[in-house]
Design brief:
75 residues; mainly alpha
Amino acid sequence: MEWLLNPWVISIIIVSVVVSNIAALKYTANMKFGYKDKVKYMQDKHNREQQLDELIEKQAANDVNKEIRKLKDQA
C-alpha cells in the first residue's frame, strides 16, 4: 500500500489518464455522426406528410362533390 501513495506512482497515473483522455478526444473529433441522414429523413417525412395531407383534402373535396351531386339528383 505504501508504493501506491508514492508521488511518482500518483504522477504516472495522472499523466496516463490525461494522455488517454487526449487520445480519446483526438479519435472522436473526426467521427461522422448521422446528422445529414437525420436531416434527409426529416425532409422526406415532411414531404410524405404533405402529400398525405393533399390526398386527404382531395378525398374530402370529392366526397363533398359526391354529396352535392346526390342532393341535386334527388331534387
